[in-house]
Design brief:
globular
């Protein structure tokens, strides 16, 4: 995806759906990890394959949620696409040569969310989140841009029995590199989750995002997911995604496991 592909949606989904408990009456701590794999040409001549393995620590209080994501990332590409905070960024057409694989620490992301409004009979739950993507990935390997990014977003949820519609609206300030001037991007998502039973839920998410460069393409992605509660403190989530623009991965999927403490 031109800037943040469907993987941004998916990683955000795990955090976003986990935040539905942000109004809990007691503090909690959890760890999430797993894998995300995607492949796509992103408007270039050859495919870029990305494996993203995050470790996400989350601490929740009744109104505040703190999250820290420390990822490992591996990119097989002929160039032109670099890693980001869980998603690729198209910066050129690539070298046209053989694809090579680069791996290492990705960009660490810190986030703080505040529950502005609790859900009531007449109003939805509203979270406000600020994020910083720290430029910890090696830009010489194409694992990141080498610059910090800053994001602010609002998430809205409303439960109607077994169905929970949700949406996100946000704005991201991208750090320019010595060779690339990025556009700041407006992004949003719409989705819905359905509680099949006490242990299992599923849903769909449509993710939209502006192009990060003047020559890039916007993001258009659809993700389907299933979440299953293994115990009162553990759950597993799997998903598949499909992109519908040159700014998106052709397809991808993955799974995450969350354990509470």
């Amino acid at each position: 995806m031109a800037k943040d592909n469907y993987k941004k949606t998916v990683v955000g989904m795990f955090l976003l759906l986990g935040s539905l408990a942000a109004g809990a009456e007691q503090n909690s701590f959890s760890l999430t990890s797993g894998f995300d794999y995607s492949t796509g040409k992103y408007g270039t001549d050859s495919a870029t394959d990305i494996l993203y393995i995050p470790l996400i620590a989350k601490y929740e209080t009744p109104r505040l949620t703190y999250k820290l994501t420390v990822p490992y990332i591996s990119i097989k590409s002929a160039g032109g696409v670099v890693g980001g905070d869980g998603s690729p960024i198209v910066i050129g057409a690539g070298s046209g040569g053989a694809r090579t694989t680069q791996s290492g620490l990705g960009d660490i992301v810190g986030a703080v969310s505040y529950t502005l409004f609790e859900q009531t009979d007449s109003s939805p739950l509203v979270d406000i989140t600020g994020k910083i993507k720290f430029a910890t990935a090696d830009e010489n390997k194409g694992l990141g841009t080498g610059e910090n990014d800053y994001t602010v977003q609002a998430d809205v949820y409303r439960t109607y029995g077994a169905f929970t519609p949700f949406g996100t609206l946000g704005y991201k300030v991208l750090g320019d590199t010595p060779t690339t001037n990025f556009n700041n991007v407006l992004f949003g998502s719409l989705g819905g989750g359905y509680k099949i039973n006490q242990q299992t839920s599923s849903g769909l998410i449509l993710d939209l995002r502006e192009a990060a460069t003047s020559s890039g393409s916007p993001q258009r992605d659809l993700t389907a997911y299933v979440s299953h509660k293994l115990t009162s403190e553990a759950k597993i989530q799997g998903y598949v995604g499909k992109g519908f623009s040159d700014g998106s991965a052709d397809w991808g999927g993955g799974a995450m496991v969350t354990v509470g403490f």
